[in-house]
Amino acid sequence: MMLAADQAALLASGLFLLTGVVTGIWKYLQIRRSETASAHYYVDVAHRASLMYAFACLVLERLAAESAWSELINLTAVLAAVLFFALAVGSYVLHGLLGDTANQFRRPHRLGRRELPAWVLPTFMGLLIVAEVGGVAVLFTGMVQSWFGLFF
Q1: What string of DSSP letters covers 53-106?
Q2: Among 12, 15, 56, 58, which one has the highest count of C-beta atoms within 10 angstroms of its own C-beta?
Q3: Which residue range(s) make up the domain with 79?
Q4: DSSP state of 112
Q5: How far is CA 90 from CA 12, 20, 83, 141, in A?
Q6: For residue 138, how far is the Cα from the chain centroid?
Q7: What angle do CA 146, 148, 149 make, to 5 degrees?
Q8: Phi and psi at residue 121, to the nearest 5°
Q9: What are phi and psi of 45, to 5 degrees?
């Protein structure tokens, strides 16, 4: 039987893959309607990122399955990374729907017609870095510990 961390990662993989194929339809429809045969920048990014994160979640699943750490630690690591994968894709979808920017890092940061406070994007990116790198590092070191007993 699969453990909760494995299941969470595999479920996330399937959801990202589904998001990738659905955003691919969206991208195709925009390309068909466009005089330049192109989709909005963030529709394209949402499509590609979703597919990339689907495969990243498969790697998380394998790392969690091989990890020596407790199920709670593995699940927390998986969920931290997956949450920020999802928030990133969600922001791309939102910018694609709103058509408000082709560069979410351009200052001032905007969401639709609203200007975001200057601290929002850097704070989000800092948390994303900690969650994604931390989650992967925890799972990877857990696998290394399981295979080679190098840490404890």
Answers
A1: HHHHHHHHHHHHHH--S-HHHHHHHHHHHHHHHHHHHHHHHHHHHHT--S-TTS
A2: 12
A3: 4-148
A4: T
A5: 14, 12, 10, 29
A6: 17
A7: 70
A8: -65, -45
A9: -65, -45
pLDDT in tens, 69-86: 999 999 999 999 999 999
CA distances from 96 to 4, 47, 53, 118 (A): 33, 10, 18, 21
Token pair 């699969």 in the structure block, residue:
2
How do residues 3-60 score in pLDDT, each as one tens digit? Answer: 699 999 999 999 999 999 999 999 999 999 999 999 999 999 999 999 999 999 999 9
Cα 42 to Cα 53: distance, rounded to the nearest angstrom: 16
pLDDT value for 78: 98
Number of domains in the chain: 1
Centroid of chain to Cα 30: 23
